[in-house]
Amino acid sequence: MGRAKNGRNKAGTGDFIFENYKEQDSDKYEEKALELMCRHFEFYGQLNSPDIEYVTRGAKLSCTHGNRYIYLDAARDHGVYDGKNPVLTCKDCKKEENIKDFGACGNGKFEPLYSEEAPHPAQTALNRNGQERYVCLPVLLGEWGYGDINSRSLLIGEVLIDKAYKVYKKESFDSGEFSEDTIEQIAKNQIQNMVEDVEYSQVLMKCDNLLCLYGGVITIEENPEPEEESVIEDNSEMGELEEENLGLPRGEEIYITSWLKAYKGEPDGKNGKRVYYDKEARELLRTDYPKIDWYSYEEQTEKNGNCADHLEGQEFISTDRGVLIDEKERYWITLGPRVIDSDYPDTGNCQAEYFADSIGCRVDVVLSKMDNKDEHIYLECVWSGNIKAHTSGNGIYQTGVPYINSTQAKTEPFKEEYVNGSIIEFTGKDPHETGTMSEYMVDYLIVYPKELTE
Hints:
By secondary structure, the protein is of the alpha+beta class.
């Protein structure tokens, strides 16, 4: 160790420099330096691996604490490409700009690290096991970096939460409400003191990972398939790009019946609310009712009179099979009340007025293959405002039991034919053609605010 020439006391070992060094502390700093050096070489010792791969826009991400994949977006083009796909850098880690939420936070194996200084969000969601968890609200700590998950998790627990965050006073949260801005500022203040600002950006590698304040380690599962170069001819009739097509492109278009169009993969779901349900509880229905499926048909051919005033300007168009679509070829559907409002009470009457602000909103229905849960497709739909009242007990899938205060409780009480487990009802007539629909199940739904539907 040695003393710096600029008048400030410094000591160092290898790459590690300690401020305000005192001679009598030499043993303590030496021990700490050796610990940090071990981590340093553990993080960077594998950089010569032949498996290193650059990461491009649209890469599939997962979080140790989350229950869904997301896809890495790129708000800025850095001018570097792998084929047609933009290559990303370690600085591409801004929430909502590059990183979206991972659904529900916590799964039994990995639990979030909430504290008085970093409280949990108010909203909850169900994880893949049907357990209620707080929603994922990523607070990203620094940039993408290299290292194994266990070591990176130790950095969160030992360095950031147990030491740094406890200096912030509880008064910041005296309102009792979660303040995302406050948490973000805490993270920014800490990272500013921990990371030097450099003039270059490192290329993001597939082996890199990203840390969240709540203990999650975000990793890169796979890159998107490389896109072939193509020439786009000028077409003055194309006009400006529609807002809904900005961001990640749609997946490949497929038909799982002659009338039902879907897209491969999962949507990015920007600004949408993800809705999960208890799959195991729903599966129990199959014991007595083996023909349950994720879909059914409402047999309605026009707008519900109670919802029509909230659907002004939105068209109900009949396909050749009798299923109704809107002007953008999205399918009109009926949903359970807790798809729209996760806190909808068991005593609710399932009336349209309660949901007025959401009637006509866009909904993405994300399906997974029954024999391969990682193979996804999704349907673009619109909520008609009609409510599946026979979903009492969960509010999402059909149990045959109506909400006790709903009109259906009197006019259509429990019926065995209503115990079909369906999560969505297509508005319109039964087309009597199912194709490969029953090879899928609903994984989750994404509900978008009405103002984003147009």
